[in-house]
């Protein structure tokens, strides 16, 4: 056992001296060998410890001069090179400066994070740690700031009483989970510059549908277990944008699944003497971890089970699968790139391969290392690789017109129905393939933008919409892969057969529409031709509506909510933002009309508010009567500040508003409302703004006073008002009729 980095104190000199001697004696009694030259047993009010100066006389902590000198020298050196016209620096060099500054955060404060953002962006654009990255103007300004201000900020110091134990850690971990996968990375506090300081992986089908809290906790477990040897005897600060994670890691959970993951995390940390601190961060400060969690693994594929079985019967049995995960391992013993349940070891190259019959299906980038490992360990194995004669690894296998002596037999597998794709959409892989085929090579600066491009493409839809489409795509994927065909890109006829299968199961038209939108979304994201535009798909959807469609339930809350939104937006000339932001107390009901107060509006720059009056109607389409009906079904409190129009969930077949006070998103509203409108006007190109325009046009056609229309719609000018009003055919033709020709 080793003890290091201890610090103690007491209220006065005599008490402190007594405490110091007691600690020293106890250590000697316990048998510890004390390095006295590194210890200071006599009390002092000025101590250098862990790179900080602790001055109890004035109650301050400062960074040591040596560390300040080192940071200033590093910044000056880079600025000097920039002055000579150099703008490319290794990512490792910039990360080292960031790490030095972040390690001073206890004293310098949050300004460290705020004023290293652009430097960090430069590092994130790297191809590798040794690759050059271009330093931006903003990052240069940050370097100038730290060169001139680092020492000044340190002179202020920080009060000892304000330093919390949670500020004392060795390394920070940021992690996040999505429906697609998980991701995490370690900060540069300890100059942690290994090529694998980032980690990401995919969920398999069963894990994708676990709760978000389970996925977030499981991410922490996998990242910590993957680096437990590096983190041994260190304190790790775990940053997550899920508040449940930080709470459960501290106090546990009543839910068995969550508690099981937490128990495993704590046991693993205990074995390696890893200290854990938890911290919640807003999503805006966890963007890179979120990006990694959506980064599908391009090497996530395996060989078909029946192919493996045939090869195993002939050349096996294979005792260990060296390159796999828990959801595609061909053997009960397997090695994985990162920690996952059941793995025997992380990093197959750290193991001895001799004495086993190895099943080897390495990623193409690791084939050369794999061949060298086989030769070094004299391993018995089956190696499955692409026949890629121009690859760097081919000369290791083939020379002078024949395969090398250590290869006993060569088998050529069929071209088709051999590979099983992993989970995920493979968006990043497809984007990088397209970028590479366009001529952008590995060392080109543009190549670093491919990952961001994939992230921005995913962000084209809201997170909830992407989750829904991804779940729908996975159902299609499981179905078609089971029958041995490709899910992405897909053949239109295969999609049509899938829809036929759903119709046979008496699925509703909404289920078919969800499947169609999901498959369409996945193909458009990856730049493939949309297989759902085929005429078979359209006819099958219409057939499903006739066969499996159900009459609209006029008492269903979802239907009444949508109709209420349509009628109020139409009668009040409301923009969607105004409609979705309405709270219960904004709407007052009177005998002959309803009053709607808009607390803010696009044209209400001074936030004075606007009142809209909507009269009672004489038909079933009366907004006032429909709103009353909606109140009765939703049980809303009319005096509360809850949003009127919230998302809806179903429980036991009954539709209910979600309990959280969250307004309906634009994407969900558009999907629902346009679907209702298309039922009566299938050939019109409609959107949510059509309600505002349609209401104003109907009022103008009925000869309502122009000034009243303008006020009702909150338009500032006639020009903006007229842009919304569509003139009727009779009014347009009357212009030429009245010319007297």
TrEMBL record:
Superkingdom of the source species: Eukaryota
Name the UniProt record assigns to this protein: Tyr recombinase domain-containing protein
UniProt-listed InterPro entries: Dam_MeTrfase, DNA/RNA_pol_sf, DNA_brk_join_enz, Hepadnavirus_pol/RT, Integrase-like_cat_sf, Integrase_catalytic
Record SUPFAM superfamilies: DNA breaking-rejoining enzymes, DNA/RNA polymerases, lambda integrase-like, N-terminal domain
The keyword Cell cycle appears for this protein: no
Gene Ontology molecular function: any one: site-specific DNA-methyltransferase (adenine-specific) activity
Pfam families, per database record: Dam (PF05869), Phage_integrase (PF00589)
Span of domain Tyr recombinase: 558-725
UniProt keyword annotations, A-Z: DNA recombination
TM regions (residue ranges): none
GO biological process: DNA integration; DNA recombination; DNA restriction-modification system
PANTHER family: REVERSE TRANSCRIPTASE DOMAIN-CONTAINING PROTEIN, RIBONUCLEASE H
